[in-house]
Each structure stands twice: as C-alpha cells, then as structure tokens.
C-alpha cells in the first residue's frame, strides 16, 4: 500500500457551524485543520478525519456520498434522530418506502445522511459510522479496493463495498443506475501518499484514475476515479 485514506472532506458554506453539528452528533472532537477549515478527529486507529472546508457554492443536487449511522436498538435510533433534529438537522424525502427501517435526514446545509435501523447485518461491527455510502459502478468499487489496498467485503449484483483491514466504516457503491455527476462533488476523499507522491499518482492513473488540470492551494494533486468523482492526494497531512 502506498497511500492511505486520511479524510472525508465536505465543502461547507459555514465550516465551523457544520463541524459543530457533526461534532455534536458523532461525539468527535473538533480542531483547526492544517489544510484550512475544521476537522473532526477520529477516536481510534480505524477512523479518518471529517474535514469541513469553505465554499461559496450552495448545495443544489443530492450528494454522491453520504454517511450511514448505525443503531443498536430502536431506542438508540430514536435518540440519534432526535439529537440530529435538536442540533439543526431535518427529515427529508429521497423516495424511501414506508416499510424501510432507516431514517433519512439532512444536516443544516442539506447534506443527506441515514440513521440505520438496529439489526442491520451488513453494517454489524462497523461502529457508529457504519458506512460512507456512495453512488457508483462496480468498476469504481474495484478501483478503490486496489487504490487503498482494502479488501472487497461485498461484490454482488453490481454493488460493492470495501473496508480497511483495521476495521471501521465500510465504503460502499450502490451500482447502476448511477445518477448524473454534478460539476463538482460536495464530498470527496483525501489520501496521503506513504512514499513518493509522483510515483503514487502514476500508480493511481494506471489503475484507472484521471489527473485533473486543477491545482490546489495546499499543493495536493486532484484526481478523478473511473466514475469521474474527485479525490485528492497529498504527500503529508
């Protein structure tokens, strides 16, 4: 492995306010981020930061990624939903059916997330953040498995999922139909190169990534996965 996942980055109109919402919901400590904005720090070695960086662009379409939060009991699911609403979240309708057990919410800037019902076997043992759930093809799931050297833990009916060997959340891709991609995703993954960054860029391109002709002020290299979703590679974090 020559790169590792260090952050899920969220573009925010008000990074500090959005970080306060998620810090309160996830019970994670917040800190100034070395690359700008605010980060919520992981609470064990399996996690990654959730980084909030400033943007002037309002959210207009559903996100390509969202968090799935787990519950150990119906009471815990209700408490999580109530806490999210108390902090400034709201219920939203994304076409979920009445018989589905999960609750779909949005944070104060409209970013979708789900509070999953207890007894969900797929997310068993993954922690409170059960998954980073993503729109995407089977091809992109295989790309990310090779890119991060995380094993595929699900590969059926065009749906894929990977998980770090250390444990923690899964990253999942739901398969077709994949919604049209917006010009720029509001959420993206940040990776850090373990060795030579230029060599790692070449490895990722060989796996199917595309280098984007857009610079980053922090010196990171912006790329896109085979589905066109942006991600960033840095040489330290």
TrEMBL record:
PANTHER family named among the record's database cross-references: CONSERVED PROTEIN, HYPOTHETICAL FUSION PROTEIN
Keyword Oxidoreductase in record: no
InterPro entries: Glyas_Bleomycin-R_OHBP_Dase (IPR029068), Glyoxalase_6 (IPR041581)
Native source organism of the sequence: Blastococcus aggregatus
Keyword terms of this UniProt record: Signal
Signal peptide annotation: 1-19
Protein name, entry field: Glyoxalase-like domain-containing protein
Keyword Disulfide bond (UniProt): no
Any one Pfam family match given in the protein's UniProt record, by short name: Glyoxalase_6
Record-annotated Glyoxalase-like domain positions: 8-116, 135-234
CDD domains per record: VOC (cd06587)
């Amino acid at each position: 492995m020559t790169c590792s996942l260090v952050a899920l980055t969220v573009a925010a109109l008000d990074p500090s306010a959005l970080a306060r919402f998620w810090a309160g919901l996830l019970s994670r400590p917040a800190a100034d981020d070395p690359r700008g904005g605010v980060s919520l720090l992981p609470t064990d070695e399996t996690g990654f930061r959730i980084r909030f960086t400033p943007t002037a662009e309002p959210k207009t379409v559903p996100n390509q990624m969202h968090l799935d939060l787990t519950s150990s009991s119906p009471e815990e699911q209700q408490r999580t939903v109530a806490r999210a609403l108390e902090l400034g979240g709201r219920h939203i309708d994304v076409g979920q059916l009445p018989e589905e057990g999960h609750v779909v919410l949005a944070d104060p800037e409209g970013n979708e997330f789900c509070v999953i019902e207890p007894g969900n076997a797929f997310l068993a043992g993954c922690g409170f953040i059960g998954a980073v759930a993503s729109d995407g093809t089977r091809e992109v799931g295989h790309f990310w498995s090779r890119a991060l050297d995380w094993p595929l833990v699900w590969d059926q009916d065009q749906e894929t999922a990977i998980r770090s060997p250390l444990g923690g959340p899964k990253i999942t891709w739901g398969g077709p139909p994949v919604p049209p991609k917006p010009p720029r995703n509001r959420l993206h993954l940040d990776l850090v190169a373990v060795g030579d960054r230029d060599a790692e860029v070449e490895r990722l391109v060989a796996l199917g990534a595309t280098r984007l002709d857009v610079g980053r002020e922090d010196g990171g290299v912006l790329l896109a996965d085979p589905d066109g979703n942006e991600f960033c590679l840095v040489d330290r974090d």
